[in-house]
Inverse folding.
């Protein structure tokens, strides 16, 4: 649905997209956006260079040599022209009343050189009075998986995206999109916003917090042009939905001139940390942490408390999974007497244990009915707010390879449990000596929407961040 | 003196650094707990004020030209008699004028020497991106070496002050360790919130240190205060 009436709504839900200045032999931007055309959108090219036009038309794309000739109202333009040309293109876009444009073009203030700064100021001086939605410059622009607008040829097309993602860096925006996709998660809308000279990160956050297709917001950000506005916007967004902030540039830019002790301690990173906590944002430090917490947020139910049931396959892993969750402040709770009594009736305690953590490998032995029974009993325990289960590549990979149905039966059991349960479920599978094979079965987890993590520590950190978000940090 | 008067005087004199006496006056007016500190312009005044404050007392030089009072020999602690106060007064004037030749010495600040508590720091600075921000940390080595401090943007809500205290690594120290009494967390929270209110009301305040604040099982008090205001 988007956000009717919002200044970014037309750009984020485009019907007509124009690529300005694309070049052969690859025509990267037109190729990226072919799915938009295939899905029925109007995809056009604006290119003056006669030697490029033939190649563009060969792609089946209608080319215009003037912006004014484009037959529909432009919702979004991707501009890839030399920097000196960019003010002329912007002038034309404003003149035709386009709803927005991303300038892939770089070489502006980020170079620190006089011409770049001057050109950037020219863009700002033109765009601001016109209230024009300029994304960038020096960015990869928008990625809208549902309508097929993309900033990378490998980025998935999907209409079930829940994550809105914003990135000051093009690389991190693309990489997050690809890695999220590889982990079975799709994006609702994404913007790589580069130098952010007109639209700043707060403008995009404001859209995503109101967008009902976006359940969770994530962002990679290095700074904000208007810090106070970012603080207010982020705080408001966190009241509406989970917001994950991966703050880049964590080393201090050097000591500031200050006369106070407090001033000398107020590094950029320290103040950001405080600001983010004050807003109630989920703070991450890198791509992996960001992906992990997105899994916990979008694929699992909410943990209501700190009580966790830990299900491991062996004694050694029972200790390790307990260490990982205890270090994050979780309570590896005692089960109720009822739970013990029920588990006792069938649990194989020779080489196993039905205390929390459960050492259940010898009891389950691949029998999905037994696994199902354990999950139901533990799930019903009032001391338990979440279940985390270890799957062992070390022990089971040989069997899963030989009889793939043993894997899929188990995953179906987990899926059924997860869907029926009101409590969150998390799976952990360390690749052990089977990295290639374990990578190959990841889609089995994703197609069932089972959140799976590569280590106990990563699972524990992700669940902790989600718990803190829902319980006021 | 009101904040407006103090600010006007500092600006008239071309100062951005308020004296300790001025800083404590405006903070006390804002409800921030600070040790009562008075300005003595002679040895006799220092003795009279010491007796009013109650021994033991602390004497500190007041000079717009001396930023680091201890380094200049401008601080004398734990003075228990009138004679000690006179001797300390003379010693401060002598060592400060030697350490910073030509320094204008306004006088000497006199205060009762508060009993040692758990040392914390409460401060404020103006961040280039976010404007006024508050800081909290444990005093001494925790802040100097480990930079174990937390920040929040002004104005703070009650919850923010609580989280600032709770998120420092040294938090268990405030609950009492090795037989030390627990600190009054409510008093620390209230101090943070009062300072946040004070700086929110006075955008001229650019930086502020309460360092240290002594936290006790019952209450907390700032024994030193530093305020830097904008030049105009």
């Amino acid at each position: 649905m988007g956000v009717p009436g919002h200044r970014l709504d037309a750009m984020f839900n485009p019907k007509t997209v124009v690529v300005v200045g694309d070049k052969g032999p690859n025509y990267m931007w037109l190729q990226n956006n072919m799915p938009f055309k295939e899905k029925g959108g109007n995809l056009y090219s604006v290119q003056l260079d006669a030697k490029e036009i033939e190649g563009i038309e060969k792609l089946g794309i209608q080319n215009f040599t003037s912006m004014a000739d484009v037959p529909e109202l432009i919702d979004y333009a991707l501009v890839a022209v030399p920097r000196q040309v960019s003010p002329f293109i912007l002038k034309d876009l404003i003149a035709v009343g386009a709803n927005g444009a991303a300038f892939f073009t770089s070489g502006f203030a980020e170079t620190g050189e006089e011409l770049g700064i001057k050109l950037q100021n020219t863009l700002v001086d033109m765009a601001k009075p016109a209230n024009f939605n300029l994304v960038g410059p020096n960015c990869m622009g928008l990625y809208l998986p549902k309508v097929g607008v993309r900033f990378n040829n490998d980025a998935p097309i999907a209409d079930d995206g829940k994550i809105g993602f914003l990135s000051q860096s093009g690389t991190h925006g693309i990489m997050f999109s690809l890695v999220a996709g590889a982990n079975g998660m799709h994006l609702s809308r994404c913007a790589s916003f580069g130098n952010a000279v007109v639209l700043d990160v707060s403008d995009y956050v404001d859209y995503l917090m109101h967008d009902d297709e976006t359940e969770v917001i994530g962002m990679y950000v290095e700074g904000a042009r208007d810090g106070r506005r970012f603080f207010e916007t982020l705080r408001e967004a966190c009241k509406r939905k989970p917001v994950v902030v991966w703050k880049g540039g964590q080393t201090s830019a050097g000591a500031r001139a200050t006369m106070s002790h407090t001033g000398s301690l107020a590094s950029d990173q320290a103040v950001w940390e405080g600001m983010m906590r004050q807003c109630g944002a989920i703070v991450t430090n890198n791509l992996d942490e960001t992906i992990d917490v997105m899994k916990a947020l979008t694929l699992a139910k909410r943990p209501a408390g700190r009580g966790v049931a830990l299900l491991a396959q062996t004694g050694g892993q029972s200790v390790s999974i307990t260490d990982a969750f205890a270090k994050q402040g979780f309570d590896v709770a005692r089960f109720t007497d009822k739970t013990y009594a029920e588990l006792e009736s069938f649990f194989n305690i020779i080489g196993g244990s039905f205390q929390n953590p459960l050492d259940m490998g010898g009891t389950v032995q691949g029998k999905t009915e037994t696994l199902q029974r354990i999950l139901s009993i533990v799930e019903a325990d009032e001391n338990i707010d979440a279940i985390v289960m270890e799957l062992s590549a070390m022990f089971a990979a040989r069997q899963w390879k030989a009889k793939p149905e043993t894997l899929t039966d188990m995953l179906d059991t987990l899926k059924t449990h997860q869907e029926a349960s009101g409590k969150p479920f998390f799976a952990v599978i360390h690749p052990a000596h089977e990295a290639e094979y374990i990578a190959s079965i990841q889609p089995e987890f994703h197609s069932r929407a089972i959140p799976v993590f590569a280590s106990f520590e990563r699972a524990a950190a992700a669940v902790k961040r989600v718990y803190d978000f829902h319980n006021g940090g | 003196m009101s904040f407006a008067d103090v600010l006007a005087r500092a600006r008239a004199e071309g100062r951005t650094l308020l004296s300790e006496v001025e800083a404590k006056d405006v903070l006390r007016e804002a409800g921030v707990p600070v040790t009562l500190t008075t300005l003595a312009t002679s040895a006799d005044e220092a003795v009279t004020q010491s007796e009013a404050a109650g021994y033991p007392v602390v004497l500190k030089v007041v000079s717009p030209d001396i930023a680091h009072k201890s380094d200049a020999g401008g601080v004398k602690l734990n003075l228990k008699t009138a004679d000690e106060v006179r001797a300390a007064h003379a010693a401060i004037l002598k060592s400060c004028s030697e350490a910073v030749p030509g320094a204008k010495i306004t006088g000497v600040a006199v205060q009762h020497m508060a009993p040692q508590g758990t040392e914390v720091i409460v401060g404020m600075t103006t961040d280039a991106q976010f404007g006024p921000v508050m800081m909290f940390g444990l005093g001494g080595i925790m802040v100097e070496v480990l930079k174990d401090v937390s920040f929040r943007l002004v104005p703070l809500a009650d919850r923010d002050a609580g989280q600032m205290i709770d998120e420092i690594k040294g938090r268990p120290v405030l609950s009492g360790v090795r037989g030390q009494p627990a600190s009054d967390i409510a008093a620390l929270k209230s101090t943070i919130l009062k300072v946040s209110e004070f700086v929110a009301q006075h955008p001229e305040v650019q930086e502020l240190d309460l360092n240290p604040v002594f936290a006790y099982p019952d209450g907390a008090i700032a024994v030193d205060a530093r305020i830097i205001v904008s030049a105009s």
Q: What stands out?
A: The interface with chain A takes residues 16-17, 67, 121, 123-131, 133, 135, 137, 143, 147, 149-153, 159-160, 163-164, 167, 207-209, 211, 226, 228 of chain B (CB under 8 Å).
